Backbone:
């Protein structure tokens, strides 16, 4: 399991958050609408989250999920 750092978090609506996560390997190939699987730890529930959008800077090391 690889760990990634949450760089930013923003509340969009009740119980809906946007996260900017540092994940260089994912960021290189990401496309809006694809999914990533998020788990809090090795035994945690697997939660699929949508990659929200591409960044203005294509060389960014972060992905935006919600």
Residues:
């Amino acid at each position: 399991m690889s760990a990634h750092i949450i760089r930013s978090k923003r509340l969009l609506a009740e119980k809906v958050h946007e996260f900017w996560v540092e994940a260089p390997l994912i960021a290189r190939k990401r496309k809006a609408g694809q999914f990533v699987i998020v788990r809090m730890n090795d035994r945690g529930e697997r939660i699929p989250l949508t990659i929200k959008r591409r960044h203005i800077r294509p060389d960014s090391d972060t992905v935006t999920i919600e």
